Amino acid sequence: MMTSGLGLTDREWFLLIIGMVVYAVLFVVTVQNSRRKMVAMHEKIRMMQEAQEAQSQQSIAQNELKIAELETLLKKLGDENSLLRLELEEKKATLDYNNKVARLENEKRQQAETMIFSSDVYQRIQECLNSGRSLTSQDWTELTEMVNNIYTGFTEKLYSLCRMSEQDHHVSLLIKVRVQP
């Protein structure tokens, strides 16, 4: 049995090194698992956003087809049946309104993205990503304020859905501004 300058035997050194290696492997596995979960969450949210946008576009197209059909019917009817004509005009007006709402929602979404992508905090996030640095607490605070200003009550709504850690909140903010965690 040999001892080193610290009073540890070769066996104790061996066990210490094995313990450190096991700890490092567990740390790497935990980080990889966490990263995989974040990527899966980001992908799921992206797919939901794409599905919502596709559904909105499909709804607009369907409504416009219905409007065209109703206009054709209105022309055929002339003055023959004024009550039916009023009902058809009401349906047409409702569909027009629904299309306007869908278009406004799309415009709001695009304006929000423009505001986010042109903001100082977004530029700093990109710089941090490119240089491998972490965001400061002030950056996180500014990002939270910006997202809450653009998407009113985002943080409160998020916390009302589920309990989450500060890291989960940060990941949610990054996903909201379309930055892959």
Secondary structure: elements and pairs:
Blueprint: H1 10-77, H2 82-117, H3 120-131, H4 137-150, H5 154-161, H6 166-176
What's the short version?
This protein has six helices and no strands. The chain has helices spanning 10-77, 82-117, 120-131, 137-150, 154-161, 166-176.
Written overview of the protein:
The protein has 181 residues and is mainly alpha-helical. Among the domains are: 53-107; 119-181, no CATH class. Helix content is 82%, strand content 0%. It has 6 helices and no strands. It has helices at residues 10-77, 82-117, 120-131, 137-150, 154-161, 166-176. Helix 1 (10-77) packs antiparallel against helix 2 (82-117). The chain starts with 9 loop residues before the first helix and ends in a 5-residue tail after the last helix.
The span between the termini is 50 Å
Number of strands: 0
What's the tally of helices? 6
Overall mean confidence score, pLDDT:
88
Rg measurement, Å: 28 Å
Structural class: mainly alpha
Question: What shape does the CA trace take?
Answer: elongated
